[in-house]
Amino acid sequence: MSTIAANLQAVEATIGAACTSAGRARNEVQLLAVSKTFPAEAVVEAMAAGQRAFGENYLQEALDKMQEVARLQPATPVEWHFIGPIQSNKTRPIAAHFDWVHTVERLKIAQRLSEQRPPELGPLDICLQVNISGEASKSGAGEDELPELARQVAALPNLRLRGLMAIPERANDEAQQRAAFARLRALFDALRAQGMALDTLSMGMSGDLGAAIAEGATIVRVGSAIFGARNYE
């Protein structure tokens, strides 16, 4: 068994245990393997172990990697998620090459993604990023502006608003971790109560995925625990 395959098995066990502890079925939580900074060969190794969804932060690196993965594994379907900051001049290639975008925080970006999504690809799945801890250094919409932003984004053609994403302030205490995720879940539930057909909470990484799963995460984002330490972030 390869190192990446063994790491995926260990992460899978951690997610499975967290689901059992939370009284949830394992198939309620998707593992998103964060492959930023790692080569196409690492993605292909993870694919060989059964992983199909990969998260990328850096656009040009991701586009090059997608091309190489398609060359190495042309017959294997892959789901690509963009999870990095989005600049206006990068929306066209994001709209054309990704299946999901987790980091929409402004209407202008959503409008550009909608306008630039090739119609033959079908709707682009979208999560709105929320600055759940109110940190000045963090990206994301504020809690107060979220309902209106969600309403506007849900109305755009060529996009499908699926849910919310957040990266809370780092905390080692599980109660603090759960409190932040519970706030995001409450915002999610409030939008659903208003009639929005949301089904996705993208929250939780290696250090807090247990707390995230306990509070309802449907996608957890794990990178170094699968691929190893990064040379840069």
UniProtKB/TrEMBL annotation:
Would you say which domain of life the source belongs to? Bacteria
Name the UniProt key words of this record, in alphabetical order.
Pyridoxal phosphate
User: Looking at the keywords, is Thylakoid present?
Assistant: no
Report domain Alanine racemase N-terminal positions: 24-230
> Per the record's keyword annotation, is Nucleotidyltransferase included, yes or no?
no
Q: Which residues are reported to carry the modification N6-(pyridoxal phosphate)lysine?
A: K36
Assigned protein family? Belongs to the pyridoxal phosphate-binding protein YggS/PROSC family.
Spell out the NCBIfam families in the cross-references. Answer: YggS family pyridoxal phosphate-dependent enzyme (TIGR00044)
| Function, in words | Pyridoxal 5'-phosphate (PLP)-binding protein, which is involved in PLP homeostasis.
Protein name, per record: Pyridoxal phosphate homeostasis protein
Lineage here is: Bacteria, Pseudomonadati, Pseudomonadota, Betaproteobacteria, Burkholderiales
